[in-house]
Design goal:
This protein is of the alpha+beta class and about 350 residues long. The chain folds into three domains: about 5-115; about 115-215 and about 305-360, Alpha-Beta Plaits, CATH 3.30.70.1660; about 225-295, Double Stranded RNA Binding Domain (2-Layer Sandwich), CATH 3.30.160. The chain contains ten helices and eleven strands. The strands form two sheets. An eight-stranded mixed sheet has the order 2-3-1-5-4-9-10-11. Strands 6-7-8 form a three-stranded antiparallel sheet, with helices on one face.
Amino acid sequence: MVQGPDILISKLDQIEQRYGQIEVQISDPETAKDSSKIISLSKEQAKLRDIVVKYRRYKKAQAGIEDAKLIIGDQTVEKDFRELAKEETERLEQESQELLEEIKDNLIMADDNVINSVIMEIRAGTGGDEASLFARDLYTMYTKYAESRHWKIEQMDFSTTEKGGFREVIFNIKGQGVWAELGYESGGHRVQRVPETESQGRVHTSAATVAVLPEPEEVDIVINPNDVIEHVSRAGGPGGQNVNKVSSAIRLEHVPTGITVNMREEKSQHKNRAKAWRILRSRIYEMEESKKRAARASQRKTMIGSGDRSEKIRTYNFPQNRVTDHRINLSLYNLDRIIAGDMGELIAALKENDKQQRLANL
């Protein structure tokens, strides 16, 4: 009999059973005729595989412990063999405990770990030029971190100021575990520093908002084209004669949700349309996921990764070289390194806190 926390073991038995059902369904010739079903089942199987493999190792270790205990309790067995069995029991108990902890991590983070593409949107808030420069600094921080993780970055849309800041910047990051690491960045970011334009040396406070949207695959979310109104127009602003003469700017309006997306960066109408649809899918997907999270977390007002963009989540204090994440009451005195993309320690602390909250609510 497998030992361990009863509720967790019961949950793992259900997962293993479901994994077996998926294997049967995938091997069914009828299923092979439906490509969308094969994709859906394969994704579910991939999400469960690591948990099932470790659970089977856990059960094998538990069976080994039971066998070893029988030898230890059998006085007819030579003492040396009983001592070896005792050592084996200790080793297997240690292995079982480690596997159980790894399984817990996999279990609570499985949904996040399989999302390998996000769309990030950074917008300057209060603070004028200084806020747009801060938005630019946040963009640099995230892209430097992404580069250090060997993730792929794709520019999607941006709007600059005369001083080189960003009113708004939208970009895509692809890579293993990108949502699990950057999903905590949604919310209000505040900076306290002496602006470049400040002659008196006074510290100003400015703000920017960050939204991190998991980018779904087309199979994950279906949008009825009849629900989307497309507007085509000439793109304004810099970019030469072609930008102003050709109707390349795209505006999509999703009638049921009221979500709108404007895309004008590319000279090609086709490329703008493709990017606009990707952003629209992500925003609708995030809206639906937010509703699900709100339902699950109705007893908990605030949860890391909730995507609440109005919430002030972090302050960057340059005079003190300090970053404070208000959700976990953590202050780190290495702002210079963090703003340069060295975010590992900060993200690790957020992930650990999130993990503990999820375990408590498992």
